[in-house]
Each structure stands twice: as C-alpha cells, then as structure tokens.
Amino acid sequence: MTARFAIRTDGSTTIGLGHVMRCGALANALVAEGAEPLWLTTTPQHRPADLDPGIKLVVLADDDELGPTLDRHGIRHLVADWKFTEADRVAALRAAGRHVSLIGNFLHGAVPDLHVRQGFLPALSPSGAAALSGPKYLLLSDAYRRLPTRQTADRANRILVSLGGTVTPVLDRIRQRLAETFSGLDIDWRGPASNGPVPPLAQALCQADIGILAGGTTLHEAAATGLPTLCVPIASNQLDRAEQFESVGLGISLNPDDPGFDRQFEAALDTLMRDAGRRAAMARNGQALVDGDGAGRVARHLIGLAAAAA
User: Fold this and answer.
1) d(Cα 140, Cα 142) in Å, to the nearest integer?
2) Would the N or C end of the chain have less CB density within 10 A of its end CB?
C-alpha cells in the first residue's frame, strides 16, 4: 500500500523561505520513494519552483482546518515545519491518533513522535522524542546530491549575496560596504521573497567564489556546494547554526549587531578573497560533511515508520 503523508509549512517575507524549501526537498524525496505527500499551506504563492507537479496542494485558511483536512484525506502521518509550533495543537493531533513529525530546531514545548533537527552537529531533541539530527539529515533538493568537487580560484571575484527570503536592513548595510570598499566585483544579488514559486539557488551557489549568506537553510546548501561563506545571521534563531557553521570549518560567522561589524566584514571578506588555501579547505570541509542525500534518508525513515504502523 502506498504511504501517504501530509506536509504542513508556510513561507513569506516575514518568516523566510527556509521552511518551504526544506519541506519541498522532503516532499520530492517522498515521491521518489513511491509515497504520496499532500502539501498543506496558508501561503500557496510561496512554494518551491521544483516541487513535483504530482503533489496535491491544499490551501488552509489557518491551522484550525488542519485536523479536518487530514481526516478528509484519510492521512494519519503529518510532517510539519512551523515558524512557531503550538504545543497544544501537536498534543491534540497525537491524541487523535496521528503520527506527528516536526522539522526544525525550535519546538516551543511541543512533543512530537519524531523530531527532524536541522544543523551541522548532531543533537538530541529537547522534547525527548526520537530524533534525526546532524548533517546526514539536512533536507536539500536533488540539485545538491553528490556534486563534483569544487575548484577554487586563485583570487575570488564572483560574490553571491543572499540573506534569505526575509526583508532585512542588513542587506542595505552589506550593499554599502561592498560599494565603498570592494569595487569591481562580480556580485549576484538575491533579494527577499516575491510572490510566486521560489526558484532554486543551486546554480548561483555553484558559480560563486564566495557567499555572503544569512544563517538559514542556505548555509546547508552552501556546504553541499563547497562554497566558502561569510555568514551574517539576521535573526536570533540563526545564531546557533551560524556558530556551528564556523566551528566545523565551513566559513566565517559575523554578527551584524556587533558594533564593529562593518570593520569585521571588510577585513573578513578581503582575507577570504586573497586566501585561496583557506577557501579550498572550507570547500573540502563542506562537501565532506554534507552529501545532499538527507531528504532521501528522512523520506525512507518516514516510509519505514508508516509501514511499521500499518
């Protein structure tokens, strides 16, 4: 019997696009493994452009419609990636006999059946639930699977700037620093989310010599492509991932709230542009750590759980 799952997620300029991109990777992986995922969202305009066209999309007015929608479609297994998780809602879903898997690192007191953490270092779930954690389980699209070894230029010139889908004044600060201090660079600017399917970033990451990225899901993508990166976390929930990113040798993390940020940014970028050896080491570390098959591993685990419960 075909395993059926519902995936619940949203994206916007307020909460970013990382939730929908990693859920899209998982949804496509479930399809590749023979399952039938249902996409549940309140923001249908923000979905991955590469989402499998066979995945049915259901628009919710709010999460009060979630339980009835699952009942109507006869789905017992829910995978949810909320910006803010309501512990009482998760408890009610589980009490009604549904298996709930939560994606992300912040549960806000919720206790799922399975916690799929997203980070560069393994960690237990704070809820005490079973967990899939660490770089083996990072949810990335097929575009990041087993990429060729990155070739490092002697001097970096192509810079990708992407601070995710969220509107942030930090982007203007970076634009000013680059214009005043680093003229002549080939800069690929990626702005906040617009209305419409979210295009993949894989090609831009592969073509760049250095990334200037926020502390969200794009860091996982950068690691898979071997892109040396200056990480600029733009929200408090990105600080832990940014610290992990630097600690495992994938790049340099700079806090834009630090009074010395402008000076630190200029010095770090100048050093990284000149030091091909350091960039090559970051590239090797990233591609050794993240093989891009995390979505497939999580999909196969979920299908195994569904089969055992059948």
Assistant:
1) 7
2) N
> How high is the pLDDT of residue 71?
96
**Structural tokens at position 144:** 């990041």
Superfamily of domain 147-289: Glycogen Phosphorylase B; (3.40.50.2000)
Amino acid at 180: E
Measured in degrees and rounded to the nearest 5, phi and psi for residue 16 equal 85, -175
Give the residue carrying structure tokens 């660079």.
Answer: 185
Region 25-33 average pLDDT = 98
Task: Kindly report, residue by residue over 39-67, the tens digit of the pLDDT.
Answer: 999 999 999 999 999 999 999 999 999 99
pLDDT tens digits, residue range 208-260? 999 999 999 999 999 999 999 999 999 888 999 999 999 999 999 999 999 99
Per domain, the residue ranges of the chain are 4-143+292-309, 147-289
Question: Do 272 and 279 touch, CB atoms closer than 8 A?
Answer: yes
- Average pLDDT score over residue span 166-182: 91
Give the architecture-level CATH label for domain 4-143+292-309. 3-Layer(aba) Sandwich (3.40)
Domains 4-143+292-309 and 147-289 share a fold: yes
SS percent in the chain: helix, strand, coil, step 5? 40, 20, 40
Encode 175-190: b = buried (16+ Cβ within 10 Å), e = exposed: eebbeeeeeebebbeb
Both structure tokens of 118:
């997203």
Which of 20-34, 157-171, 187-201 has maximum average pLDDT?
Answer: 20-34
Q: How far apart are CA 13 and CA 305, in angstroms?
A: 34
Please tell me the distance from the alpha carbon of residue 310 to that of residue 294, in angstroms, as a whole number. Answer: 25
The dihedrals phi and psi of 170, each to the nearest 5 degrees, come to -60, -30
pLDDT of residue 168: 87
